[in-house]
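Format notes (please read before filing issues)

Several people have asked whether sequences and structure tokens are stored in separate files. They are not. Every record keeps both together, in the order shown below: the sequence lines, then the token lines. Line labels are part of the format and must not be stripped during preprocessing.
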Amino acid sequence: MARCRGIRHCVQLVEAFQHKSKFYVVSRYANGGDLTDFLSDTVKSSYMSEDLARLVFKQVSNAVFELHKLGIYHRDIKMMNIFVHQGGSRKDTKFMLADFGNAQVLQDGEMLTDMQGTMHWMAPEVMKKQENGLKADIWSLGVLLYALICGEPPYDGNSYTQLREEFTKKNISFEHQAW
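Then the structure lines:
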């Protein structure tokens, strides 16, 4: 998180300390909670308008772009890892990428083969424990955009096996009322 200082639309680290066996991370306050809280409390829906989705997506994808320039692979982009700070108006609302617990700093061309992240949001190569890197965050951004508009990720399998099968065989539905 310390490497993310100064990156707009990333939750900013204020302080980190350890007390006995516990480690504490203090970050800037986000008065709107996470994105799922914002949807239920403010938007009053599980999905949002295209205009609001565009605002969220622009801010979060800009954060990911800046992270990737530093070689930081977030590895867990999802609605619950986007914090909201509400300003006086909707256009003043800031959406900030958070939770860097799975993040890795990659050297040029470095790839990983372990599986980290949240099942419905991870790229197929991550789920298959194949070589993966920064591009897997881009997959997660695509899942995020779909979920912002529809209220849920595009794949709904209940296990890794079902999801892997859906990735290769299921056509994504654009039948939701939001489309």
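For reference, the curators noted about this record: The chain has one domain: 31-169. The first strand starts at residue 13 and ends at 19.
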